[in-house]
Write a structure and sequence with these properties.
Structural class: alpha/beta
Shape: globular
Distance between the termini: 26 Å
Radius of gyration: 16 Å
Helix content: 25-40%
Number of helices: 7
Strand order of the largest sheet: 3-2-4-1-5-6-7
Order of helices and strands: EHHEHEHHEHHEEE
Length: 222
């Protein structure tokens, strides 16, 4: 199956660099609306059999133009929502909150999936819920599935599940609003990332290395 992971369009919280992961969350800015409107053209040459979104408003608004253009029914699933910020959620944009959030997410990819986000979920729960939605999509037999999700969730899940992407790569290559990661594979055999934000990485090796990750995921999430 080909899996097309799309980060949602810009929100007011993205502009202000705030941790904002609660449901239902904000809508899109004017720029976010334009980014969403551009997706049908961006993906014009990409087959899409199914279109999933998270339970957060911003993914549903982002997917709407694509769904209309393709005549697709949008499937809403909680499992592909953003990594929960827990006690860090209170619209914080300070360095300490961001460092804690991203350091915790790094630890999950490095194998410490039992570590819990302060007041929130652990890696087993966060990766597991995303896995569940991907497995559901794969079980339909669809050849190509698009999921409109969130920046940290896409980066962390891809680094944890793709054979050729590690956390260092995901940390150094952020995803801007409506950037796309394309993977190919299956839940049983694993996944290979083909492209990241428009750059072909299918032939590149970014294998996981032992030891703690040392690069920040980036200043924005959600």
């Amino acid at each position: 199956m080909r899996l097309i992971l799309i980060r949602h369009g810009q929100t007011p919280s993205n502009v202000a660099f705030l941790l904002d992961t609660a449901v239902p969350g904000p809508g899109l800015t004017d720029l976010g609306d334009k980014q969403a409107a551009a997706l049908p053209q961006t993906l014009a040459d990409v087959d899409i059999d199914l279109l999933y979104v998270s339970t957060l408003t911003r993914t549903q608004l982002t997917a709407a133009p694509l769904a209309a253009a393709r005549g697709l029914e949008v499937v809403v699933r909680d499992g592909i929502r953003e990594l929960e910020a827990g006690d860090l959620e209170m619209m914080r944009g300070d360095t300490e909150a961001a460092r804690t959030y991203f350091t915790t997410a790094f630890a999950w990819v490095d194998g410490d999936t039992g570590l819990r986000m302060p007041g929130g979920e652990n890696g087993i729960e966060a990766l597991g819920r995303f896995d569940t939605v991907v497995a559901e999509a794969a079980a339909t037999g669809a050849g190509s599935v698009a999921m409109v999700s969130h920046g940290a969730a896409i980066r962390v899940w891809t680094a944890a599940r793709a054979h050729n992407v590690d956390m260092s790569f995901a940390a150094e290559h952020r995803l801007d609003n409506t950037d796309i990661v394309i993977l190919e594979g299956s839940p049983e055999e694993g996944w290979t990332a083909l492209s990241w934000a428009g750059t072909d990485i299918g032939g590149a090796a970014h294998a996981r290395e032992s030891g703690p990750a040392g690069q920040p995921l980036g200043p924005t999430t959600a």
